[in-house]
Predict the structure of 4-hydroxy-tetrahydrodipicolinate reductase.
Amino acid sequence: MSTSSVVRVAVIGAAGRMGAQTCAAVEEAEDLELVARLDAGDDVGAGVRDSGAHVAVDFTVPAVTEHNVHAVLDAGAHAVVGTTGWDDGSRGRVVEHLERVNAERGDEGLGVLIAPNFGLSAVLAMTFAAKAARYFESAEVVELHHPNKVDAPSGTARHTAAAIAAARADAGLGPSPDATQDGWEARGADVDGVRVHAVRLRGLVAHEEILFGNAGEQLTIRQDSFDRASFMPGVLLAVREVGSRPGLTVGLENVLDLS
Ligand SMILES: NC(=O)c1ccc[n+]([C@@H]2O[C@H](COP(=O)([O-])OP(=O)(O)OC[C@H]3O[C@@H](n4cnc5c(N)ncnc54)[C@H](O)[C@@H]3O)[C@@H](O)[C@H]2O)c1
């Protein structure tokens, strides 16, 4: 995939909410061309191959997303994945598949980019929080969502808390100070020792606050997502970048220049 030429893009799950947004965003981008809209019932491999897509974007359902990625690789295209449900096992099988196809190819090889969150504000908040974590005695995460969300705390809040916990451990920090003896149920979920609180309220969309405290000072990092349109800059960035990143990349933070 040459960076100077137009990138041909197939969208899998094109009839869904994220897929439809992605189709519209690709059609609006001058350096991208939408060559296939695929959805349930379509042969993903044939659709990607026959359209000559360089990159396929998957916004489907957890039960089929891994199968789709393998079909995309067999069709000779890069994959950008936003669908949830990936774990160590499914990621490992994709790594093996990439190693196999890339060993057979003469060029720089195929890439798969899986991003649990394409929202730039969410990814930046998580990254900034991980950088700040080592400098504060206390850290807690609050995530706030619409009441139709079925899981709590959110995956993004779990990732944020885990990143904070890892940074604290690297810096040799112990647990945040907390004298609680009774009423632990009011102190939120424990993610690697970092407390995470989930608020469900009509009128909210998707929001996260990361609170850091020292004696006499506090830092709050907050991000607010109001619309699915906010995911599109991240999706398009991934589509443009995946061709130059052979192998598996997990997380949009690895594509953003945050050095
Ligand atoms: N990474 C992110 O930033 C991000 C953001 C929003 C949503 N998501 C995730 O993206 C996924 C899609 O979300 P949505 O709101 O668009 O869902 P949706 O239900 O609106 O759309 C899913 C689409 O996938 C299609 N589909 C089902 N099986 C298929 C198959 N075998 N082949 C091709 N298409 C198939 C469905 O027909 C539907 O059109 C979910 O897992 C969601 O959690 C990720």
Observations:
- Residues 120-226 form a domain with the Dihydrodipicolinate Reductase; domain 2 fold (CATH 3.30.360.10).
- Residues 80 and 247 are 12 Å apart (CA to CA).
